[in-house]
Amino acid sequence: MKGIVFREFINMVEESFSPDMADKIISSSKLTTAGAYTSVGNYDHREIVELVSHLSAATGTSVPDLLRAFGEHLFGRFAVLYPSHFAAQVSAFEFISILDNKIHVEVQKLYPDAELPQFQHEFPTPDRMVVVYTSKRPFADLAEGLIRGCINYFGGGISLTRENLPCDEGAHTRFALTR
């Protein structure tokens, strides 16, 4: 998993809770990195799972709620850090529909070793989008937060439902967006 995700998680913890909380969860975790992440580095996704678990224990907020909140935060940060990916898009439907075929292609060019999730989509009707998220990692809650962040970024007005699909490892989830 790319280091930018870890760095943004630590930043969110510092902003939403405190720098002391970030230090606490880092020091209570058994991290091979000791909590030092570079944006372009690759790190084991289990480290962020451990950090989120320690944050959950320290705050009483569930892991799924923390991952969803982080997803919303992360989408907002991506909009700031990578404005060119957002400039031509006018809606959440439009943005999500280019994830795999445009944005992830660009990310893969920059970071050939990145293991990206898939966001397959279809439009059963003009006002309904179905997105199937597939990942080797157990981050359906993070994906939901990213989708909610996208909806909010583009002005809301879209309802979101989620159905977890069977899978042996990671996540396989269907999201339905309706305007």
Low-confidence stretches: none
Helix content: 40-55%
Q: Specify the number of helices.
A: 7
What's the CATH class label of the largest domain?
Alpha Beta
Order of helices and strands: HHHHHHEEHEE
Shape: globular
**Radius of gyration of CA atoms, rounded to a whole number:** 16 Å
Classify the fold: give the CATH topology of the largest domain: H-NOX domain
| Strand percent estimate | 15-25%
- Based on secondary structure, the structural category is alpha+beta
Supply the CATH superfamily name of the largest domain: H-NOX domain
Overall pLDDT score: 93
Number of separate structural domains: 2
- Tell me about the biggest sheet? 4 strands, antiparallel
CATH architecture of the largest domain: Alpha-Beta Complex
Count all strands and give the number: 4
* Sheet with most strands: strand arrangement: 1-2-4-3
How is the quaternary structure best described? single chain
Distance between the termini: 32 Å
